[in-house]
Amino acid sequence: MRCCLGERAAGDSRHAVCARSGGMIGEARGHGTPQHPRNTSDPRLPASASFRHIAQAACFALALMAESAATALPAGADEQSQADLSRFTIRETVNSLPAAPVVTGAAAASRANLSETEIDYRVTDWYQLALAASASLSGGADGSPAWNGIRLSNTVLMPDAGARTVFFGLTAHLAYTAPGAEFPPLAMTNTRFAVGLAPIVGFNYQAYQLILSPTVVTGIGANTITSLAAAARLTRSFGGGFDVGVEYSGVPGQIGNFGPLNQQSHIVYAITDFKVADSVVNLGLGYGLTAASRGIAAKIAISHGF
């Protein structure tokens, strides 16, 4: 079942945050802090820009989740089908999020459509490197796709996480935001470069797996913002690489200065992971619980090891 944050251990397959493919922590059993880089004012963004801030955070958190999940298999799962030890994994993730207005009477809701291409290298059974490039599918000045930047992730996860009752891990991120990016690849920090830490805590019980992975992101440079994103994933394995479950992604905002609840992002997804030939597919359909995230959210991640 393999982002985030997607996308089996803590993310999609490796982490996720998360969670995403055959990676270490991306999709172990399941796949985020979108902030608008162009807004350099108070992190409690005004209603007109708040969604851009939280939408990306949500995508990042889910992506991380996907990574973690991809690596850790639930107890009793078919390890042969779910845990592909391929050294390299390529994963393509597409997220579609609601951009609901925060102010009553504001313009009709629009959507944020984001894409991320990630290549993972499994160095050992407990350490994985990942390089991801993200883009807004309609973020250019003329509505064309626009590059947002790149993210380098280092994930450390306890070996055989899927066979342990409790397992731990940690992902460290370094990201670069391209000039004019609509959504930073990690989170809005008011700086070109950002770093993030995402501890991973997982629990396996029979065919069930629970993964918790909050992420803290801060910028490198002056006037930086430090933000928090939360992600959780509960799944049940039915064997043969098929899992179903529930995933949560929340973005309170700047640490020490959280915005009002209606300007925060809290999205709950129904998710499933399954295999198609030699690839792993992660699907999610969710709904935002606050004014800033209200509406249908959808995501798909396809991972292939080689």
Number of domains: 1
| Structural class computed from helices and strand pairing | mainly beta
Question: What summary fits the major beta sheet?
Answer: 13 strands, antiparallel
Instruction: Give me the oligomer status.
Output: single chain
Q: Topology as H/E string?
A: EHHEEEEEEEEEEEEE
Rg estimate, integer Å? 17 Å
CATH topology value: Porin
The residue ranges in which pLDDT falls below 50 over 5 or more consecutive positions are 1-51, 71-85, 100-109
Number of helices: 2
Q: What's the average pLDDT?
A: 75
Beta fraction: over 45%
Structure summary, number of beta strands: 14
Shape: globular
Our measurement of the CA-to-CA distance between the termini, rounded to an integer number of angstroms, reads: 17 Å
CATH architecture: Beta Barrel
**CATH level-1 class:** Mainly Beta
Helix percentage range: under 10%
The CATH superfamily bears the name monomeric porin ompg
General description of the model:
By secondary structure, the protein is mainly beta. Helix content is 9%, strand content 46%. It is built from 2 helices and 14 strands. It has helices at 47-71, 79-82, and strands at 26-27, 88-99, 110-122, 127-136, 146-157, 166-177, 193-205, 208-212, 215-219, 227-237, 243-254, 265-276, 279-288, 295-305. Strands 2, 3, 4, 5, 6, 7, 8, 9, 10, 11, 12, 13 and 14 form a 13-stranded antiparallel β-sheet that branches. It is globular. Mean pLDDT is 75; it is low at 1-51, 71-85 and 100-109.
